[in-house]
Amino acid sequence: MENDCEAKVTPSTQPYDTLSESPSTKTKTNLQNTEAIVCNARTIFYACPFVLLALLILLGIPLLQIIIGSLCKNECPVNPLIPVYLLVMGVATLTLISTVILAVTVKKLSFLFYLSILLALLMFGWCITGTVWIFKSQGKAQFYYPNQRSTYCQYSVFNGARVLSYMNYFYLTGLLSLFSKRSNQ
């Protein structure tokens, strides 16, 4: 039986391709494309942990507010509005984050941008209100005797609300600066 796998050369009247590149130029272009893909993959690989960390912080803080506010809603009788502040602020922050992401990705829906600004301003007012509630209760709140209901507030609720309110100011300041930069463009 004879070998049917012989290389047959057929002459072509067509150039190598429509751009009339030589095979060595085409190989160089393919090599450059491969290097660019490897570089992009490397960038994504190195940037991915930072993106995940930022996403964890960005979504973790409002989720923590929701969890503390809903689980401990009756644990701060010195000012029962502090857990409500945490719950509302967490839900509003998640709503604002999703609205901002939609406004950035879908540029045709400009009303989302204005809705985000309005929501950020309302959240800023709510944050000031919650901070006033927290600092008014700071002098009379105690964490050790739950039987003294007029002055008791669970430690994690009170201090969590205080720390998370500071983080909310950073959120809102960053978002408002982002809005002011975008509106100037």
UniProtKB/TrEMBL annotation:
<keyword id="KW-0812">Transmembrane</keyword>
<keyword id="KW-0472">Membrane</keyword>
<feature type="transmembrane region" description="Helical">
    <location>
        <begin position="44"/>
        <end position="68"/>
    </location>
</feature>
<keyword id="KW-1133">Transmembrane helix</keyword>
<feature type="compositionally biased region" description="Polar residues">
    <location>
        <begin position="10"/>
        <end position="27"/>
    </location>
</feature>
<feature type="transmembrane region" description="Helical">
    <location>
        <begin position="111"/>
        <end position="135"/>
    </location>
</feature>
<protein>
    <submittedName>
        <fullName>Uncharacterized protein</fullName>
    </submittedName>
</protein>
<feature type="transmembrane region" description="Helical">
    <location>
        <begin position="155"/>
        <end position="179"/>
    </location>
</feature>
<dbReference type="InterPro" id="IPR040350">
    <property type="entry name" value="TMEM272"/>
</dbReference>
<feature type="region of interest" description="Disordered">
    <location>
        <begin position="1"/>
        <end position="27"/>
    </location>
</feature>
<feature type="transmembrane region" description="Helical">
    <location>
        <begin position="80"/>
        <end position="104"/>
    </location>
</feature>
